[in-house]
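Researcher: Let's try something more involved. This one mixes different molecule types, so please make sure each is placed in the same coordinate frame as the others.
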Amino acid sequence: MSLQPIQDPGLPSHVNRKADADPKAAKRAEQQVAILFLTSALGTVLFIFSYVGVPQDQLIFLPILGTTNAHQLFLGLGLAISLFFIGMGAVHWAKTLMPDHEVVDVRKEQRSKDEDRAAFVATIKEQGATAGLGRRTLIKRTLGLSLGLAGLSPLLLLRDCSAELPGEELAQTNWRAGTRLLTDPGDRPIKPGDLEVGAVAQVLPLLPAGRKRTLNDIAKDALLLIRIRPEEFNLDAERLSWTYQGIIAFSKICSHMGCAVALYEQSTKHLLCPCHQSTFDVTRAAKVIFGPAARPLPQLPISVDSEGYLVAASPFNEAVGPSYWERDSE
Amino acid sequence: MKARERAAGAVANYVDERTGAAKWMKKTLTKVFPDHWSFMLGEIVLYSFIILLLSGTFLTFWFDPSMREVEYEGSYEALEGVHMSAAYASTLHISFDVRGGLLMRQIHHWAALIFLAAMVAHLLRVFFTGAFRKPREMNWIIGVGLLTLGIVEGFLGYSLPDDLLSGTGIRIAEAIMQAIPVVGSYLSYFVFGGAFPGELFIPRIYTAHVLLIPGIFLALITAHLMLVWYQKHTQYPGPGRTEKNVVGYPLLPVYMAKAGGFFFIVFGFTAFLGAVAQINPIWVYGPYTPAQIGAGSQPDWYMGWLDGLVRMSPPIETHALGYTISWNILIPGLIIPGILFTLMALYPFIESWITGDKREHHLLDRPRNNPNRTAIGAMALTFVLVTLINGGNDLLAVHFDLSINQIMWFSRIGVFVLPPIAFVVTKRICLALQRADREMVLHGKESGRLVMLPHGEFIEVHEPLSPQKAYQLTSHEQLPALSAPETDERGVALPKGIRQKLRARWSRAASEQIAKPTVEELKEIEHH
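Model: All components are placed in one shared frame. Result:
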């Protein structure tokens, strides 16, 4: 340890506050504390008044805040004043009137004395020996086995957290060959003529009669329908055959983390996911052109049925939504 | 004896005869706590936790943690007749039909944000002053655990209302689970009770949010505070303060009044925010449905850096043999945060390994006096700040009329380039400050008084420092670099392992200091 260049001058001597020396100042401080506590009491009065007297749907206009709910506002301000000024009073009291002489306490090293440590080790050895754990290996091993096995039972109990296990279900949607596309909201079948060039629509599949649509269905079925001029497509022959008169259908569930890909920019024909900004090019089968998504949005082949309504020509040929281990992405 | 004193005496006697607490209480009530504004950061964490328990309990009286589909018929007309989960409907009920309900919701949310912000500020204070050193490593680890739990608890909390924004967050969490190789889809199925979203996750995360995690919190906070109590608080260096003492104010009455009063101040401030600052207006977002989303979807700030990491990730997936590994989710969502938090938890041990310092420390460091540590902290902070900025790239792009792609590329490059720059710059600043301290001790402080000498030269008069100030600037110790032993105690040459080389290198970097004035130098100055 190097020698300190300047020796410790010790604690600075105590400097009296005004209230320490002057009884008048002390009296003044006492009054200030009382005023703070009284302000708090007024806050509680405001709180009670707001609870009872201000109707819950009363609106009020205030600068900066704008139009706001008076009931919640005054209730909150009352509570804030009542609590804040109790605190201010207490702190002001402590700072002006309570003794401010610094106190010095000694600090001992955390480590026990050597003899205590030796005694501790001896005790452990002695008491351990009486149980004979070190000697009786049979007991030790069977105990280890039973504890380990017992630890497994809670894991087993958690098995029924899910009745189903993930299998093919993750890769399946309600889109079949011939499934009609329904508007969402509205549940109406769509004809190609309903969509103008440049339009975008969210659609869901027509479910078999009697089957109620759940959020689980929507989480995989949601589809985006976009119409552009057919000559603007930059697709191979197969993908082009999946479109119908310039109408192309993509899964709306982001291939990155499953958010709804909801932002469509008409001028660039880009789809953007607002969660992580993955950007997909509609003209090139939703190819990823920016952001963290690694795969295009799955495209659903569409055509029209005998009545002229848009239908799925076949199911998705890959799983929709985010990737998972068992997903066959080839 | 006054009646009041007699009554107090009777109570004290009753308790002491049954517990023997008098001796312990006497010692406890006069326990000394050092005073400094930065020690209040941890207090804010504790107080917002209490506020969270109180406001949260209030909310549970009306919140219905169920995903049962209901038709809304409350006083918020815009959603009249809309189908939604009971959780969302009851949150609307709390916001519009329970007196003070919205206020309590907003207090709860603000308190959660303050809870985490204060936790991070407290962590930075502990880090930059070296308060985590022996014997406080265990408390540091408990603290890292509390921070991790706090982030999870906050996320679960804002997921409960089942609005469009929170459901989107849950969807992302599900995607992260699914991305884990081999077990991912099983994990997700067990958590959600089947395919996403199912009808079980709200009741499940409710139990975790109101019972399981708060219970662990209570246990860990108790352990954290007991250790602070038992080991006694650290103190800043200064005249009269040593490794062997603790200087401050006694618990009764000063500290009790200040700390108790501060609780009310924090509560009052949070209530003020709850009154005037709208937060999480779930009625604007609408109920959750997987097919919709709000533009500018943002997590709460403490999740923002994770979201920023995920956003900046390059689009890499591996497909092989019919299986998929989503590196674009695994690396930013699990691997980097895992490494970051592990390094943070291990930092006290890493530092003591580098410096070879195994002694107890109760005097805090001024951040400039440990340039290496301060620079490491600045580096980590810069990393998180860049990711946080990227987490808000959509909002930044809109507000500042920037291109989202440019912000993303700035972050992708910045996350690698800026932290090392921050390290170097911070270290240089620390050394410059040390140099300034040294100058001040040797030559006194500038007085601003210019004097013309007889021969025409102008000088500025320097005033000598007070002994207290001079001591404060010179009392810190400067550890020399470890010299790696070439041979063991029996004189056999030791193999030069990579570990030893690394350690020697780090140790050299850690011991880079501006030498403080020596006794001789000071004497020499005096003779002038």
